[in-house]
Specification:
The protein has seven helices and six strands, in the order αβαβααββββααα. By secondary structure, the chain is an alpha+beta fold.
């Protein structure tokens, strides 16, 4: 690893401490005889942050985008499963969604002399599916589709127009804006130019993820039937959505106020909510969210690589999306 600045040194130290902590846990499991009956899963909630930060310390390359984006760099994450008595070393690229972990764990727990392996779970309907056979036997995934996101409101350092995304088999459809971040960001130590946007960007983006995992070729015009089919699925998902419960940004929650510790803050002295701002113009909403994000993180314009979303004409296309 290359540690070039104080911030990357702190980051490297945090990763090293986490690695040491996980090692302590595994050694304790082995020394107490519990390792043979334990499964450890290491996963992530999104890709690395590659824009809107003081210094880029992540890279999702060769995948496109990063945290907050609908591109593979934002939604495809590595995971590993450690189960000494249940698994042999192998690599798996099955289509697995984060919601699949619950029914998968539940199925494994049911094997303790009560149910046969992979017995259907008797419970209320769950979003996820049991993927234990895909993981343990390297069989095909039990799912062919998942909704990536439907979001009507701008996100600080992210999309500024309503957007939605869905994956079905090898296809991914994006409506609105897949980012920012839009481009490809090689790791700083690898060199190479950061590409802010692709040449194929448009309001509707369709990618064949199996053939084009880096999402360099938008094929929406070549496969209009798939675009229509997946757009219909997005509308069906959206019809079941509950109202958004987003709360206004509260700078008092900034971990910098608590020695950079994530903790409850509502009962702390002097906390004060920022009133939610209701504006109609998308560019004004983006500006307000940007200002709130900067204030909450004690940053200035020069501290971040802010993307103005140069690949999309949000003013012209904001009225063209309806869910």
């Amino acid at each position: 690893a290359v540690v070039s600045t104080q911030s990357t040194g702190v980051f490297a130290g945090m990763v090293s401490a986490m690695d040491e902590g996980i090692g302590n846990i595994t050694r304790a499991l082995e020394s107490t005889g519990l390792a043979d009956n334990t499964v450890i899963v290491f996963s992530s909630d999104n890709g690395g942050n590659v824009n809107c930060v003081r210094e880029v310390t992540s890279s999702n390359y060769p995948f496109r985008g990063g945290k907050r984006a609908l591109y593979e760099g934002g939604v495809r994450t590595p995971s590993f499963v450690w189960a000494p008595t249940r698994l042999t070393p192998a690599k798996n690229n099955a289509l697995i969604h984060v919601t699949d972990w619950l029914p998968t764990f539940w199925s494994m727990a049911s094997l303790q002399g009560r149910l046969e392996p992979n017995h259907p779970i008797k419970t209320k309907s769950l979003d996820g599916v049991n993927q234990w056979l895909a993981i343990s036997e390297n069989l095909p995934s039990n799912r062919t589709e998942f909704l990536i996101n439907i979001d009507m409101k701008p996100v600080a350092c992210g999309h500024r127009v309503p957007h939605a995304g869905i994956r079905w088999r090898e296809w991914k459809l994006i409506l609105g804006a897949g980012g920012p971040p839009n481009g490809w960001y090689p790791a700083p130590t690898l060199g190479g130019e950061q590409q802010a946007c692709g040449d194929q960007d448009s309001y509707i983006e369709l990618y064949n993820i199996e053939q084009d995992p880096s999402e360099t070729k938008n094929v929406s015009l070549e496969f209009p039937d798939i675009v229509r089919t997946l757009t219909k699925r997005i509308l069906e998902y959206n019809a079941t959505a509950v109202p958004m419960g987003n709360k206004p940004h509260d700078p008092a929650s900034n971990p910098a106020n608590f020695n950079y510790t994530w903790m409850p803050w509502l009962d702390m002295p002097g906390h004060n909510f920022v009133e939610e701002v209701e504006l109609e113009e998308p560019e004004e909403v983006g500006k307000v969210f940007k200002e709130l994000w900067l204030a909450g993180n004690e940053l200035f314009e020069d501290d971040i690589n802010w993307s103005e979303d140069v690949c999309f004409d949000s003013d012209e296309r904001i009225n063209h999306v309806e869910f």
